[in-house]
Amino acid sequence: MGPLPEEWEVVRLGEVVEVKGGKRLPKGQKFSERPTKYPYIRVVNFRNFSITTDNLKYLTEDQHRLLQRYHIKKSDVYISIAGTIGIVGRIPDELDGAHLTENAARIVILSQSLDQNFLIFFLASPMGQMYIRSQTTKTSQPKLALSRIKTLPILLPPIPEQKAIAYILRAVQEAKEKTEEVIKALKELKKSLMKHLFTYGPVPLGEVDKVKLKETEVGDIPEHWEVVRFEDAILKKRIKTSKVKQQNYLPVGRFPIVDQGQNLIAGYWNNEDDVYYGPLPVIVFGDHTRIFKYVDFPFVRGADGTKILIPNTEKYFPLFLYYALLNLKIPSRGYNRHYRILREQVLVLPPLHEQKRIAEILKAVDDKIEAERRRAEALEKVFKALLNDLMTAKRRIPKELVGKLAHNMEGLV
Description:
The protein contains ten helices and 22 strands.
């Protein structure tokens, strides 16, 4: 483990905890068809540090009596031991006493020299995960035996320092979670704004009754708006550009690559001859993924399925066209081509000054989402760095802060 502070101990996990397995339902039995008082937590519900209740299963009264020895308490630590190995955390208060799948184990802390939150963070750290992987049986489905969990080495700083470390990590983690909640709320706001703006135009909520609407094939829209075919919204220019295969993308480079994937920039490229220098801005459409991207900078075109759409600026403000395309409902055909479906679509066409106002409103929300996304990304990097450094004593908490942070941690539990 390398050099460690004198006051830190190294013990086997089995010296300070008891490890107990979960239990599956008897063969042929099915979960309750409705929620009951007896939730059953499976690995699909596990996240590092938390549990998701999406698709949570429940036991009947009889099943509960049969499996009641295999429940998990909020004071325990769960760990996945089959399939995806090493997901760790504690259950929320409302699931205290829930039953646990056979593909997971609960770690019951027996010693006062080990803090629950510190144990979770240690097992989730690069060092902890390395030890877990080293004890995993590599079969068709990777497995981690209960007996192997007990042999895992763990670092034990003095308990106040454990609590202080856990407090710092939890504070950064909660800041990231709150930022993700803000992002989620902003995306919901954008969805509501899109519905309002593409129905009534850029008017306040209190004035929608003043907007005269008409029925069209895309739904109700302001009476003075038009509806046009998709092909009238873009220019029929054929601009030849090189395509860079995904396996050749560079992690850093002179020019960004834009493809049909989720991220705006998928990688980088250095050959200037391959850069798209045609009209800008353009809208990139993922022929397979149905993803639209607004691109207003020189870029290199990514792999197959990346289509470049050049807005017809006589009719459309380019940024508004991008949002109008986002507002389309293009049915999925799996990993097949979708451009033919896109060509059959029709789009709303407001006056240009209304287009600009709508685009400004939606871009303001998008800019805020992007700022929060970058904040979440930065917090994730900070968390990972601290998780590694604090757990290996590469970074120490000043002694004068340990007691205060430990006390703060006790107030959170």
